[in-house]
Specification:
With about 70 residues, this protein is α+β, with helices and mostly antiparallel strands. It is about 20% helix and about 25% strand. The chain has a 3-stranded antiparallel beta sheet, covered by helices on one side. Bound molecules: zinc ion (ZN). Zinc ion (ZN) binds next to helix 1.
């Protein structure tokens, strides 16, 4: 693994991220702005639900990580 392997954004989670959750808060951000949270398999659902429940979530992209 390289040193720049992306890590899950969930609090205290050291797992490598497998997904990028792309979101935008229209109250804070212009429409062209994209914020990204990284998530591992385990946290993808809870993090995306957190964003989706606030209508911030735009999409979930799988991260292309070399095996
Ligand atoms: Zn995680």
């Amino acid at each position: 693994m390289s040193d720049d392997a992306p890590i899950c954004s969930a609090k205290g989670c050291p797992a490598p991220a497998s997904y990028a959750l792309v979101w935008n808060n229209p109250k804070l951000h212009t429409p062209d702005r994209e914020k990204i949270w990284l998530a591992c398999e385990e946290h993808r659902e809870s993090l995306s639900h957190h964003l989706a429940s606030r209508s911030f979530l735009r999409r979930v992209d799988p991260l292309d990580r070399p095996a």
